[in-house]
Amino acid sequence: MQRTQAQQRNFSNYLANVQTAILRSSFRTLGAEWSHSNLKLEYNLLYYMVSGRCKIWIDGSILVPTAGQLVLLPAGSIISASSYDGEVFGKYYCHFTSLIGDNRLFDLLSISPIIEVDDHVLIEEQFQHLNESYTGHEMTSILRAKTTLAQLLCYVIENSPARIINDAGHRDVQSITRVLEYMQLRLSHKLSVDELAKLAHFHPRYFISVFKSMTGFSPMQYIAKLRYDRACSLLRTTNLSMNKIADRIGILPDYFTKFFKHHSGVSPTSYREFDKRT
């Protein structure tokens, strides 16, 4: 199914708020003793093969990842695995969960299980940083580990030969996507939580909870963000008056300067003048 640019943009917003937890991260050299049989994954597996080969049976398909490839096995899969005819192989690996709201990321986004790596130094360094941070004891160690995992996930998603958004059957995702598209179209109008909750067919309290879990913002915070972003774009790319810009983003003209300064720290006039100078 072809996805519209708006739907891809909305999913990008969900990705920005994906919640990850690292369960294990390390490096191992393995051989004939390594095997799993009909293991149902409760978490995602991310491998980076640095030497040798192995065999993985996943949901009826056979994979033979080799040195220089990334492997992503999503939570919910049933796998069996072994070395390749007893061959010794080395791999970095990370076990992690990733959620968008209450939905597993890779239930919503299907990607290729094997990714060819074109910058081996970069990926190995990132896994080394991931492992060091995961086992570290600094205040920022967990944050650093999750940041590095996010970089690796971006690489995997961006370099996957196939990317398919699967929101069918995920009512919360479909409902919030419909609301986000409605916000974009009706930004110049007055918008309320009750109106948006009705559009999503949710109780207002439940709607606020689901919306925040998927975007990181309350509905009204998200609308304010959209209005600010649209105002910045109009200030940079048009010569519209402040009153017309205010009207286009659904802000009362008398309140526009205060609104913009609250979000940017400068007045809209100063923002426009600074942009012209740069």
Automatic annotation (TrEMBL):
| UniProt KW rRNA-binding keyword | no
| PROSITE patterns from the UniProt entry | HTH_ARAC_FAMILY_2
Chain ranges of the HTH araC/xylS-type domain: 177-274
Keywords carried by this UniProt record: DNA-binding, Transcription, Transcription regulation
Q: Which InterPro entries match?
A: Homeodomain-like_sf, HTH-like, HTH_AraC
A molecular function (GO) term: sequence-specific DNA binding
This protein is called Helix-turn-helix transcriptional regulator
In its UniProt entry, the species of origin is given as Paenibacillus hemerocallicola
